[in-house]
Specification:
The protein has helices at about 10-20, 20-25, 25-35, 50-70, 90-105, 115-135, 150-160, 205-210, 235-240, 260-270, 275-285, 300-305, 350-365, 380-390, 410-425, 430-440, 455-460, 470-475, and strands spanning about 75-85, 110, 140, 145-150, 170, 190-195, 220-225, 250, 315-320, 330-335, 340-345, 370-375, 395, 445, 450-455, 495, 500-505. The protein is of the alpha/beta class and about 500 residues long.
Length: about 500
């Protein structure tokens, strides 16, 4: 434990350091200053600082604070971290608690876990351990599930800083799915931090209630969720899927974390298999596969992401377009050249003519042999407009009859089947959202064994986002392309369309 500071002069100096902008608005700098890293005779004697993933989360908060400066309507930081076990989640939770208490005077911090045992025996024990090592440990008093400022500190703050301290503290709070309203009631203009430890097990009703904690317009609002990804349902899962636009997410593979016993993780992989639920949850920090009904396995996608690009410049370029149908969905334009995905472009909230412009820009840049568009719904208008402008476009309807009706029930299932085979030797970007899109849909065979793909509507009912990027890649397999139908010698013309995009490269 570090030496306690008691003199008025020393206290004043300590407060000046901890409350300086360089420290209070940078949690990583705070952690480095506050704890005795590398100090002989302390538990941190052999440690130089936080692990890489912990540093990244701390810097996320610092960046959020920086972005909020100067705003009138402040943003709330919502960050979810999914990880394998034993990587130091509880340590990071402790640092955040101490940082918030120290630097956000008057603020409230709520820490919740999915059981009383987790909260008391693990989370609070860890907080107590780190608080004992903190440079300003004498500022606070600890009970079984609370951390409060010392009486002398509250008196000083109220007298000299003219700030109220009524709600200043940290509370370990249990929850009840049967009575979620009992969890509510935190409102504090000085700041609110909510931490969900083992968030995968916290009931959806508690997540919904917690959203009401952040109604005050203050820059100091942080909602952090940490967990091993133990189930494919619930709000924590949705934060990485259907609600991913509202959460900053991070996935931490335990094998990549410094200071962990890699042999432990390898034993899990060897015992249960590399694509097992145990390996995904305990090691990779990934949600387990949905089961045998999963159309594309995570291992297939991981292998494709790890492959070096082939860069076969002689292969034809095909562009696939999946237009958005709903407000939360994205219009995705995917560029495929042979076994490589060259580029994926996502756009949200655009009308038909704007999407037409995006497609034209992609054609101009990549000069594809073929452009294929899902012509269901919004796509029909896009196809018609591009054909009107004399572009070489083909539309495909997902519900049309498959060319292999014995195996696949419709064109969508067939295209996904072709994409699945292609992925076994392909190279694709290391894009977490793309991976989610590829592995999310389930296989739905009928009584004859004919394969259908789970509909987007059914996926949404499971809390999953529409697999827009995967569908955009899939449509590139709708028609065979043996060679480039366009090349640099194609006669160039110019046309200025109503979409506001001028083009000099036209289809034959």
């Amino acid at each position: 434990m570090q030496s306690t500071i008691y003199s008025a002069e020393d206290e004043q100096e300590l407060m000046a350091r901890l409350w300086s902008p360089q420290i209070k608005d940078n949690p990583l700098a705070f952690v480095m200053l506050t704890f005795p890293w590398g100090v002989k005779g302390t538990p941190l004697e052999n440690f130089s600082g936080p692990r890489k993933w912990q540093r990244e989360v701390l810097l996320d908060i610092a960046e959020h604070i920086k972005i909020n400066q100067g705003k009138v309507d402040f943003d709330v930081l919502q960050e979810a971290i999914s990880s394998g076990r034993g990587i130091g989640k509880s340590a990071l939770v402790s640092w955040l608690v101490i940082w918030m208490m120290t630097t956000r005077i008057g603020s409230t911090t709520i820490v919740s876990a999915n059981s009383e045992s987790q909260l008391r025996s693990i989370t609070w024990a860890e907080i107590t351990k780190w608080l004992a090592m903190a440079l300003n440990s004498h500022w606070f008093e600890v009970s079984a599930t609370r951390v409060m400022p010392a009486k002398w500190l509250t008196e000083l703050v109220e007298r000299d800083l003219k700030k109220g301290t009524r709600y200043w503290g940290v509370e370990g709070r249990l929850w009840s799915a049967e009575n979620p309203d009992a969890y509510a009631g935190v409102h504090n203009f000085d700041g609110v931090m909510v931490i969900f430890d083992e968030a995968s097990g916290i009931d959806d009703s508690i997540w919904a209630v917690t959203g009401g904690f952040f109604t005050e317009n203050t820059p100091n609002r942080f909602w952090m969720a940490f967990s091993n990804p133990r189930r494919n349902t619930g709000y924590f899962y949705e934060a990485f899927h259907s609600k991913r636009d509202f959460w900053k997410t991070r996935v931490v593979d335990a094998r990549t974390v410094e200071g962990t016993d890699k042999a432990v993780y390898q034993r899990i992989i060897d015992e249960y298999g590399p694509d097992s639920a145990q390996s995904h949850v305990e090691v990779y920090g990934q949600f387990p596969n949905a089961g045998d009904d999963q159309f594309i396995g995570a291992n297939v996608v991981d292998d494709a992401m790890a492959r070096t690009k082939y860069q076969d410049l002689s292969a034809p370029i095909v562009i696939g377009v999946d237009p958005a149908r709903f407000g939360a969905d994205a219009t995705v334009i995917a560029v495929r050249q042979g076994r490589d995905i060259v580029k994926i472009m996502r756009h949200r909230g655009d009308d038909t003519m704007t999407v037409v412009g995006y497609v034209i820009e992609a054609i101009e840049e990549f000069k594809p042999a073929l452009v294929v568009i899902d012509e269901g719904g919004l796509g029909a208008g896009i196809v018609d407009r591009l054909k009107e402008q004399r572009y070489k476009i083909k539309g495909v309807n997902f519900g049309n009859k498959s060319k292999n009706p014995i195996m696949y029930g419709n064109m969508r299932a067939q295209m996904w089947g072709d994409m699945r085979e292609w992925l076994k030797t392909a190279s694709i970007p290391n894009d977490r959202f793309l991976k989610t899109d590829l592995i999310s849909p389930m296989m739905k065979p009928d009584s004859r064994g004919t394969i259908f793909l789970e509909s987007k509507k059914d996926m949404k009912s499971r809390g999953l986002a529409s697999p827009d990027a995967a569908d955009a890649i899939a449509v590139t397999f709708a028609f065979p392309v043996a060679h480039r139908e366009y090349n640099e010698t194609t006669k160039r013309r110019s046309f200025s369309g109503s979409a506001g995009v001028t083009t000099s490269w036209m289809g034959a």
